[in-house]
Specification:
The complex is a heterodimer of chains A (about 290) and B (about 100). Chain A has two domains: about 120 residues, Nucleotidyltransferase, domain 5 (2-Layer Sandwich); about 140 residues, ATPase, nucleotide binding domain (Nucleotidyltransferase, domain 5), CATH 3.30.420.40. Helix content of chain A is about 35%, strand content about 20%. Chain B has a three-stranded antiparallel sheet, with no helix packed on it. In chain B, strands 3-4 form a two-stranded antiparallel ribbon. Chain B is about 15% helix and about 30% strand. Chain B has about 100 residues and is α+β, with helices and mostly antiparallel strands. In chain B, strand 1 and strand 2 form a beta hairpin. The chains are: A alpha/beta (about 290), B alpha+beta (about 100). The structure holds iron/sulfur cluster (2 copies). The site of one iron/sulfur cluster has 11 residues of chain B, from helix 3. One iron/sulfur cluster binds next to helix 3 of chain B.
């Protein structure tokens, strides 16, 4: 089989010192995105276990797989979980979830949990689209703007490039930063056109690094215009898969003249949506009790 | 919450902004919109909201420039029907 350069690491985690049996409320957030599926399980509003894997062709099945993998080795079963909230692209297709909430609300809530209440602007660069979100100190959304039309700044776009240039997806960012000088910008950020354009550039003798740099900077610029429209306020954070691509992030920060808060060591920013969903689930359990 | 729907492309910015705090879910804009660009939904971005809210429907989000064009002639443009219908002033267009 040909090497799959777009493939990234799938993993799960469970808290080494917490015991879910001690918790009053156990909730889960399941984020089925177009590229990756994530589950966060929370015990009394604190992260207890999670998993992150690739979304398959079937959303209900991907949802089931990711929650099973998050519960793996914990002794938990679905019956122990009081409330499941679904989010992401496939959120309406999760048979065992009680409610669906948009990624917009969940990412803001999750970012508030991961980075704290100073977060005012969240940029979610996901698999299929890219969203700029403003929120208050409770993680409640005050404004949002989506890029409904193009794949710039998305995981899909990156995967296309990883494959095209035969560069492992995790290395793309750093590789694109290995040049001494930024190349001239490419004219198109559209994945469909960029693909043929990139091939043309390679044929002209551009190095892989140079093509990557040009493309990352075009993506960063596209995302910048989106953020500009909604207005960026400090603190600023980036969630979603592309938050790990330093090539896009560094260039975006340069354009914004603002640095995104670094990711706290214990959390993966790709989990923000699932964490937010699990927190909403907890609030919904509490609301039902009242 | 200010919900922005639409896009930006080479020819400009095309966004409809709904102020969901002002929208009372009366549905008057939905009834008046000739192109069915607007629709009432349960607000999936605010799980604690009990009343419906207006949003740009999924199928029009990528093409509102064209969907709204009949309401926006280059000469003799009047108040847009959706804006005219909305008493709480919850709708804005960027173009
Ligand atoms: S401008 Fe016309 S078509 Fe566009 S949303 Fe308003 S009423 Fe509908
Ligand atoms: S007319 Fe105004 S208040 Fe009524 S549903 Fe439309 S946006 Fe909301």
């Amino acid at each position: 089989m040909a090497k799959e350069f777009w493939r990234w690491k799938e993993y799960n985690w469970k808290s080494p010192d917490k015991d879910w049996k001690q918790a009053k409320i156990i909730t889960a957030g399941v984020d089925v995105g177009s590229v990756s599926s994530k589950t966060a399980i929370m015990a009394d509003g604190e992260l207890y276990a999670y998993s992150l894997m690739r979304t398959g062709s079937d959303s209900p099945q991907s949802a089931r797989k990711t929650i099973d993998w998050a519960m793996d080795g914990t002794g938990l079963t679905l019956d122990n979980i009081h409330y499941v909230v679904g989010t992401g692209y496939g959120r309406v297709n999760i048979p065992f979830s009680k409610k669906a909430i948009t990624e917009i609300a969940c990412h803001a809530r999750g970012a508030n949990y991961i980075w704290g209440q100073s977060v005012k602007t969240v940029l979610d660069m996901g698999g299929q689209d890219c969203k700029a979100i403003k929120c208050d100190d409770k993680g409640k959304v005050t404004a949002f703007l989506m890029n409904d039309k193009c794949a710039a700044g998305t995981g899909r776009g990156m995967e296309v490039f990883a494959d095209l240039l035969s560069v492992p997806i995790e290395e793309m960012g750093n590789l694109s930063l290995s040049l001494d000088k930024e190349p001239e910008p490419v004219s198109s950020t559209c994945v469909v056109f960029a693909k043929s354009e990139a091939l043309g550039l390679l044929r002209q003798g551009w190095s892989k690094e140079k093509v990557l740099a040009a493309y990352c900077s075009a993506m960063a610029h596209r995302v910048f215009t989106l953020l500009e429209k909604i207005g960026v306020e400090k603190d600023f954070v980036i969630t979603g898969g592309i938050s790990k691509n330093t090539g896009v992030v560094k260039r975006l920060e340069t354009e914004l003249k603002l640095t995104a808060l670094p990711k706290p060591p214990q959390y993966d920013p790709q989990l923000a949506g699932a964490i937010g969903a699990a927190l909403f689930a907890k609030a919904l359990v509490e609301k039902e009790k009242r | 919450m200010l919900a922005n729907y639409g896009y930006k492309d080479g020819s400009g910015d095309f966004f409809i902004t709904i102020d969901t705090d002002k929208c009372n879910g009366c549905g008057k804009c939905v009834a008046i919109c000739p192109a069915r660009v607007l629709g009432l939904i349960t607000d999936e971005s605010d799980p604690f909201r009990d009343i419906p809210v207006v949003a740009v429907t999924e199928e029009h989000r990528r093409k509102i420039k064209y969907s709204c064009a009949p309401c926006k002639p280059t000469v003799g443009r009047k108040t847009l029907p959706c804006i005219y219908a909305c008493q709480p002033n919850a709708i804005k267009h960027s173009w």
